[in-house]
């Protein structure tokens, strides 16, 4: 029989052991110290967050833990950890954090931000049906037609400074044609200005830590008239724009006002076969949301990659020369490149890979969120943790990509072919696991033909000022969820009379 003193000592000891074990089991990954209540709120909102987070990874390691009010965040800075969590453990890490600002501005229709579940599955299935690898070649005729129109516009606009609107126009016209059967002639078109404005809204609300209502949901109930209530004012102004972007082109298809050779019309035709009225209504909403996000997700991302291409080329006449040698030997001077040339142009492919890596379009990925408690490497990752993959850091790891800031497609080439030992940046730049970008095959196709056709017909040079001096074409990455290189100091000059003839012949 234990004495009362021994019993008390034993009780204290076992409680202490339990607390210690629990503490060890719940050891959170390291990270910068936060403030009481708000945690790391002030650490989060930075001008170039991917660079700040990259510096943190040097202090704290591949996983950096933060807390903003009660929301846990984990910044992942290694390819292995990102793939382990979001790919191998995708049963846990495939959801999305919900955002009050998405709901307030009307962006919550976006499949990219919908938590894992049936609604996400329904919309994602619709996108997959129209963008999987076996289907995307069926869009190549339209893609080719639009790239050729782009070449003609480039020929007409060989000025001191390239008109960048033409690239956005190429991508907008291609996707509006394929998704809605709508023909776009210029960027002043109302459909396009609405999407551009909606995407500005998205860029604004996706700046980490900018809108506190996402971390303190009670703030959504503060009336709009309260001074400094920026989130409510911004949302009230933005919502009608986002709704217009979503509804107007889809309604035009439903009302038969556009060509019916398009994705939205084929989605609607399939839905018509559905006998149940309620299911039909539901499916139509999913189709509208799928079509709406394809435009938004496709245009600005590919625009950013092509901007990286033009900047990289303006900086590197030698790289252009090598690409042209490949194009001259595979395609020759008598025709323009086609999709059949793709597999025979490894250097052109390497240029696209380098564009994806160098100016990482989605530098912090799209955050995933954990739906269960988990452990990684002895650290506790609580359910609800937001996972931010620092794709920029991963794609600028000097051990994998020496001299990472240099634009150098040769890093992917060995003995004249793509070197499989170097990680293809697409494995990171298009995201992870069940949420991997469903438009990646289409994006590669669009970028390939644009890059090959431009290189085949134009020299890309630094732009010149009014005194004829060349401007520095070296860009820096700026932006938010989607980022862009800037400044854009380049111009185009046709390679030869033969090249001009090839371009003009596309109009016939
Ligand atoms: C070079 C161009 C592109 C880049 C760099 C890019 C990148 C990404 C990334 C990083 C994600 C997040 C993946 C994740 O959560 O892990 C994503 C998601 C998505 N992308 Fe893309 N993308 C591009 C083009 C496209 C195109 C052309 C389309 C449509 C045809 C598209 C449609 C989507 C959609 C719908 C999602 C959301 C997927 C989901 O949450 O389930 N993207 N993309």
Oligomer: single chain
SSE pattern, N- to C-terminal: HHHEEHHHHHHHHHHHEEEEHEEHHEEEEH
Class computed from helices, strands and strand pairing: alpha+beta
Distance between the termini: 103 Å
CATH superfamily: Cytochrome P450
Helix content: 40-55%
Q: How many extended strands?
A: 12
Query: What count of structural domains?
Result: 1
Low-pLDDT residue spans: 16-20
Order of strands across the widest beta sheet? Answer: 1-2-6-3
Radius of gyration: 25 Å
Which hetero ligands occur in this complex?
Answer: protoporphyrin IX containing FE
Overall morphology: globular
CATH architecture: Orthogonal Bundle
* Main sheet makeup: 4 strands, mixed
What is the third-level CATH name, the topology?
A: Cytochrome p450
Q: Overall pLDDT, averaged? A: 92
Strand content: 5-15%
The number of helical segments is: 18
For the record, the CATH class is Mainly Alpha
Protein name: Cytochrome P450
Question: How would you describe this protein?
Answer:
- The protein is of the alpha+beta class and 508 residues long.
- It has a single domain, classed as Cytochrome P450 (Cytochrome p450), CATH 1.10.630.
- It has 18 helices and twelve strands.
- It has helices spanning 4-25, 41-44, 49-60, 79-88, 100-105, 118-131, 140-156, 165-180, 190-205, 230-254, 263-272, 277-315, 317-330, 346-358, 391-394, 426-429, 440-457, 497-505, and strands at residues 63-68, 71-76, 368-369, 374-376, 379-381, 386-389, 413-414, 417-418, 458-462, 476-479, 483-486, 490-494.
- Strands 1-2-6-3 form a four-stranded mixed β-sheet. It has a two-stranded antiparallel ribbon with strand order 4-5. Strands 7-8 form a two-stranded antiparallel sheet.
- A hairpin with a 2-residue loop joins strand 4 and strand 5.
- Helix 9 runs antiparallel to helix 10 (230-254), helix 10 crosses helix 12 (277-315) and helix 14 (346-358) crosses helix 17 (440-457).
- The longest helix is centred in the middle third of the chain and has 39 residues, at 277-315.
- It is globular and about 100 Å long.
- The N and C termini lie far apart (103 Å).
- Mean pLDDT is 92; it is low at 16-20.
- It binds protoporphyrin IX containing FE.
- The site of protoporphyrin IX containing FE has 28 residues, from helix 6, helix 12 and helix 17.
């Amino acid at each position: 029989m234990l004495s009362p003193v021994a019993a008390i000592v034993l009780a204290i000891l076992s409680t202490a052991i339990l607390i210690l074990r629990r503490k060890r089991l719940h050891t959170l990954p390291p990270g910068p110290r936060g403030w009481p209540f708000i945690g790391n709120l002030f650490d989060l909102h930075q001008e170039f967050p991917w660079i700040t987070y990259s510096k943190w990874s040097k202090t704290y390691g591949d996983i950096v833990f933060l807390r903003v009010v009660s929301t846990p965040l984990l910044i992942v800075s290694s390819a292995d950890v990102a793939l382990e969590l979001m790919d191998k453990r995708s049963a846990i890490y495939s959801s999305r954090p919900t955002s009050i600002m998405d709901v307030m501005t009307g962006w919550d229709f976006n499949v990219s931000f919908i938590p894992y579940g049936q609604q996400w599955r329904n919309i994602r299935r619709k996108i997959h049906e129209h963008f999987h690898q076996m289907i995307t070649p069926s869009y190549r005729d339209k893609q080719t037609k639009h790239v050729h129109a782009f070449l003609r516009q480039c020929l007409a606009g060989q000025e001191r400074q390239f008109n960048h609107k033409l690239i956005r126009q190429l991508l907008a016209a291609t996707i509006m044609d394929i998704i809605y059967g709508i023909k776009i002639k210029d960027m002043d078109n109302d459909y396009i200005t609405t999407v551009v404005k909606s995407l500005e809204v998205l860029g604004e609300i996706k700046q980490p830590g900018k809108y506190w209502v996402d971390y303190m949901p009670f703030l959504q109930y503060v009336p709009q008239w309260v001074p400094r209530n920026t989130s409510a004012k911004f949302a009230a102004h933005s919502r009608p724009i986002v709704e217009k972007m979503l509804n107007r082109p889809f309604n035009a298809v439903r009302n038969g006002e556009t060509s019916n050779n398009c994705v939205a019309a084929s989605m609607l035709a399939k839905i018509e076969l559905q006998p149940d009225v309620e299911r039909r209504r539901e499916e139509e909403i999913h189709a509208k949301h799928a079509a709406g996000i394809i435009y938004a997700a496709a245009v600005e991302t590919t625009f950013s990659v092509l901007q990286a291409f033009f900047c990289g080329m303006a900086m590197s006449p030698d790289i252009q020369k090598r690409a042209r040698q490949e194009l001259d030997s595979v395609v020759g001077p008598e025709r323009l490149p086609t999709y059949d040339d793709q597999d025979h142009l490894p250097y052109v492919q390497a240029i696209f890979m380098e564009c994806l890596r160098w100016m990482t379009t989605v530098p912090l990925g799209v955050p995933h969120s954990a739906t269960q408690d988990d452990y990684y490497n002895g650290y506790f990752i609580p359910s609800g943790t937001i996972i931010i993959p620092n794709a920029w850091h991963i794609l600028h790891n000097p051990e994998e990509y020496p001299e990472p800031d240099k634009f150098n497609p040769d890093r992917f080439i060995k003995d004249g072919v793509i070197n499989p030992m170097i990680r293809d940046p697409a494995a990171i730049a298009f995201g992870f696991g069940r949420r991997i970008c469903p438009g990646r095959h289409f994006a590669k196709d669009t970028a390939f033909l644009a890059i090959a056709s431009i290189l085949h017909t134009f020299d890309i040079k630094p732009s010149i000022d009014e005194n004829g001096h060349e401007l520095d074409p070296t860009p820096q990455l700026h932006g938010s969820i989607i980022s862009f290189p800037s400044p854009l100091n380049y111009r185009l000059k046709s390679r030869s009379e033969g090249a001009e003839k090839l371009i003009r012949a596309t109009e016939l």
